[in-house]
Prior knowledge:
Structural class: alpha/beta
Shape: globular
Distance between the termini: 16 Å
Largest sheet: 12 strands, mixed
Number of helices: 13
Amino acid sequence: xxxxxxxxxxxxxxxxxxxYGFKEEIEYEEFDKGLTEGxxxxxxxxxxxxxxxxxxRLTAYKIFNSKPxxxxxxxxxxxxxxxxxxxxxxxxxxxxxxxxxxxxIKRTFDKLGVPEAERKFFAxxxxxxxxxxVYSHVNEELEKLGIIFTDTDTAVKKYPExxxxxxxxxxxxxxxxxxxxxxxxWSGGSFIYIPKGVKxxxxxxxxxxxxxxxxxxxxxxxxxxxEGAEVTYIEGCTAPVYAANAxxxxxxxxxxxxxxxxxxxxxxxxxxxxxxxxxxxxxxADGARVDxxxxxxxxxxxxxxxxxxxxxxxxxxxxxxxxVAGDGQVQDSGGKIYHLAPDTTSKIISKSIxxxxxxxxxxxxxxVAKNAANAKAHVSCDALLLDGLAKTNTFPYNQINRNDxxxxxxxxxxxxxxxxxxxxxxxxxxxxxxxxxxxLGFMEDLTKVLPMEYxxxxxxxxxxxxxxxxx
Length: 471
């Protein structure tokens, strides 16, 4: 990385570093850098996994080696797979009580507001620090309802039949190079099972933190909502500011059975040295509904396209995507929806903002299969450019195999005019605040669907980014 880029990263605003970009000196278990078959075997051995999971890992490792790097999208040439720690675990053990979390780790999550948010808004919470879940707590009310909420490492041992049935079924290792990488070296993540007819009374929450330099984080999340069940899951992500690149490559699989509802919310605020390469996919059965709300504020390069397969009649899916690209950032995001059954409906709505050398790209795929009679879908992508240097791209792709499908598509690109800013400044509003007000107005229809605490946090991050402070 050129020295001027290193300097840009290291001189991020004090406000961002104080809130998100700080780091703690943590004592980790010994583990060598680099990716080999020995790396995969050692991760499995440390976790004491059953043979069937080791076999999945080893198969995925071979697939990873056989697949080429993506040649479309953002430039991934800065990733050196042999310069990454694939397992970085603090020497402390997972805690069920916040008081039992080691002080150095507790300081990190206290600064991020995780325990406070859990107490106020969530029925259960997990906190993952590099490769390990260091805190896991489930509200007693959830346990009485039969809801399972634990880390995926624990689920492999405690709920093997569920894991064998669903792990890798929505996103197989063969899907793409980074899905294979995750399957080979995954650690942590959330496992959730909502029983038939049960509605989680409050959102479930997880927070993912990369702390160590040159660390990779590869959590694996699996959520199963049984017939008629409902759940909202919210995750947040941050990392300290380093000059060296870091890698985050997660896999998220959602299974919404008949008439179930899953809402999955991400507030991604990685620092500008993180490559964020995530595969997310949901299967929705008869009458089921899946909503992805995907907000991408941070990272150096972000490539993420939440997908929904509408497998049963009257299934519904929505992808709401927010992307903000400041100087030096590439936000390549969007969504994919596949109509595979009759009377299915969907929406893909994207809002993106670019400034300086930032680049936003929308990639949307809408597929209507031959047997998907009476499908209805709407795609909307709006982009806002904050200056003359910013760039945005739009790549919608529609595969429509039915004459009776009702499809609408709209796209708009706009700029903030000098007249708008002058008008607000003439009312005594500082320039940065004026720009932030315009941007937040542009985002309003998406931010208003978030839970209140996360809506406020997203607005705060966007405002911080408009002043050059995020990432």
